[in-house]
Design brief:
The structure is a single chain. This protein has 381 residues and is an alpha+beta fold. Helices cover 34% and strands 27% of the residues. It is built from 7 helices and 18 strands. Strands 2, 3, 4, 7, 9, 10, 11, 12, 16 and 17 form a 10-stranded mixed sheet that branches.
């Protein structure tokens, strides 16, 4: 016996395609007993019988109808005016929408009525759903053009003759009018094979409650069926995976853009030696930031640091030989005056270094300018 549905209060009919099916050698269905072994049984009517096929939906079998077969529930009146019809399956044929129930209606639930009493009949096709109340009126009470090809729960809920229909968890019909005559729950499944036209498609499970389910109860039962038959979960998973992949690609793109931006200054320079010194100052001033650079960046930074150390030693020698000892602010002023009188290459190098230093988060104090001889040797190199 399969696991019971999460809502059993008022459950009058419960049929599962993998339990208590009586089959002929050709897998045609003779009868379909209640899943719990104690409820209502459905029997085939007529010479044509629906087929039982294994492993059609998430490993579960289905009962397949081709428009000329029907099942009838062996029971008296199930409920009147307030009841809930639930079936999980899919349609393979188109219904004659917008027309009276005389032909081509593809009845999933069906029973004829009279002017004094009617039974709800539900038409399901690849092109939509329709609800009929046969008696004084042969036209559909309400219908929707929803897609009937998806394998998901169809819920038809009558509450005091008010009608609401849900497909795949979404409401597709809401009719607040009240039926003119009492409405009974139907006894036919898959049609009768009569002029109205039987259902074309597959059914895996049927539940009929003798009362209207609450909104919460309906959702709980739908979730039970969707989980059992794995309806729609693959799409959700793929969407989530796609979003994660897109997010990852975006992060990688931003990182690479940052790397390209940080490496572009020294790549565009014509003098590798001068570029290394400039790059070294930039790397030193931005050392407080935590960025993972490629290995080649570490090597270049190391080489540039070496050049920078040599320059600092040279500056210290000049400082020792200098006769005047100035404070930090005075030295900076003389440094600025000295820079304006030097040759063009020295001025550009000093300007680049000063620009990089001013844009960083840390401040660096430079000593007095190197001696004229050191500057000339550096220029010759």
């Amino acid at each position: 016996m399969p696991s019971s549905p999460p809502v059993t209060d008022g459950l009058s009919v419960w049929l599962c395609s993998d339990t208590n099916v009586d089959l002929r050698p050709d897998n045609s269905l003779v009868s379909w007993a209640a899943a719990d072994g104690a409820g209502v049984r459905a029997v085939s009517i007529g010479s044509s019988r629906p087929q039982w096929l294994s492993g059609e939906i998430n490993g579960y079998p289905v009962i397949r109808f081709s428009g000329t077969q029907g099942l009838f529930l062996e029971t008296g009146m199930i409920a009147q005016d307030s009841f809930t019809l639930i079936a999980i399956g899919r349609a393979t044929g188109a219904r004659a929408g917008g027309s009276p129930g005389l032909s081509g209606q593809k009845m999933l639930f069906y029973q004829d009525g009279s002017s004094a009493l009617t039974h709800a009949s539900v038409s399901l096709g690849v092109n939509g759903v329709g609800v009929y109340e046969f008696g004084s009126n042969e036209y559909p009470r309400a219908e929707s053009g929803a897609d009937g090809t998806c394998f998901c729960p169809l819920v038809v809920c009558y509450e005091g003759r008010l009608l609401n229909v849900y497909l795949c968890g979404s409401q597709i019909i809401s009719d607040g009018s009240v039926s003119a005559q009492p409405v009974n729950a139907p006894h036919g499944i898959g049609g009768t094979g009569g002029i109205e036209g039987g259902f074309e498609g597959d059914i895996a499970e049927v539940l009929i409650y003798n009362r209207a389910l609450t909104e919460m109860e309906r959702q709980i039962v739908e979730q039970y069926l969707q989980s059992k038959y794995n309806c729609g979960s693959s799409l959700s998973s793929e969407s989530s995976s796609s979003e994660e992949s897109s997010s990852s690609s975006s992060e990688q793109s931003e990182w690479w853009s940052s790397e390209s931006s940080s490496s572009s200054p020294w790549e565009s320079s014509g003098d590798l030696s001068s570029s290394s010194e400039s790059s070294s100052s930039s790397e030193s001033s931005s050392s407080s930031e935590s960025i993972d650079y490629p290995s080649w960046s570490s090597e270049i930074s190391s080489e540039s640091s070496s050049s920078s150390d040599e320059s600092i030693l040279s500056s210290e020698e000049s400082l020792e030989s200098s006769s005047s000892s100035e404070d930090s602010s005075s030295s900076s002023s003389e440094d600025s005056v000295w820079s304006s009188s030097e040759d063009t290459s020295s001025e550009e190098s000093s300007s680049d270094s000063s620009s990089d230093s001013s844009s960083s988060s840390s401040s660096i104090s430079y000593g007095p300018p190197p001696s004229s001889e050191t500057s000339e040797e550096s220029s010759q190199e």
